[in-house]
Amino acid sequence: xxxxxxxxxxxxxxxxxxxxxxxxxxxxxxxxxxxxxxxxxxxxxxxxxxxxxxxxxxxxxxxxxxxxxxxxxxxxxxxxxxxxxxxxxxxxxxxxxxxxxxxxxxxxxxxxxxxxxxxxxxxxxxxxxxxxxxxxxxxxxxxxxxxxxxxxxxxxxxxxxxxxxxxxxxxxxxxxxxxxxxxxxxxxxxxxxxxxxxxxxxxxxxxxxxxxxxxxxxxxxxxxxxxxxxxxxxxxxxxxxxxxxxxxxxxxxxxxxxxxxxxxxxxxxxxxxxxxxxxxxxxxxxxxxxxxxxxxxxxxxxxxxxxxxxxxxxxxxxxxxxxxxxxxxxxxxxxxxxxxxxxxxxxxxxxxxxxxxxxxxxxxxxxxxxxxxxxxxxxxxxxxxxxxxxxxxxxxxxxxx
Length: 401
Known about the structure:
12 helices; alpha+beta; 5-stranded antiparallel beta sheet; Beta-lactamase
């Protein structure tokens, strides 16, 4: 059996995700405000690297994993570890809310299905509902950002490219609401959300839209569901491999190639999707801005006490990408402790940190798609971005770039 995995790249990525390296432990620089987990807490994670031209999976890492000795000696302990779930391959088998990584796909679907015209602008007041600023808010409508909004930030109402660059929730709430659940579901199925990839290397989660019943039609969803699905929240779940595969489809300008781990000698067949090519070009421009726009790109730099530090700094490489700080359900023990008001105290809570990227030589096209998730890591840019940066360096060191 021939695998597409590169053992050297796989080992490098596994090392990058090891909490002892420090990128997957809670660090002070990772959040503008302190999170629920103390500094030094190890964080669980996964990473996928896909070659754009072939769909070959070059690295597929889940952390923590387990040894054969640990499984032999105490498999029950591994199975009952509800925080670390070492028996689950997070890269392909664990459902996660996509968060803002999905916004590029929302844009493509809205244009493809006639619910948005490129160049159209939406006002961002910081909240979608005029008379209620407590729900459906933009991520910058917070005290730490002086209750700002993207109309103020840009000096005008943002268009699609600007909204993706700055990750404006209000813009993508509008697109989700316009599209409705059925169109959103149809668009996501075009990116193979809801599909098993049949990799042949263990259990897979196919992705879900709405109920976990395999229908993935959106028929059981309503307008509010569609609104929050526009930013990758609500009744939708996928895996890091789905994210990398979707971005690889964008890199191919709408040509889908099924990812594979087992090379049986027969290359997978590409097929043209109906995704609007102008929308893909706009999405790629927005993903470029996320990383390379110094003023508004949400993954351009880290703001530290010592000044600005670029998140991506591999010489000669061009990166397109998107972060997610995705709201995640808390984890409770069977008999959790309670606070003074009687509320259950979780053992894990907060947001999952995503970063999904495309990378290629400066001046060239994207060659590889990378997706990283860090469970309860918080900021996608601050936590996931530096990890992707190190994976890009590993690709360079191994001769891929």
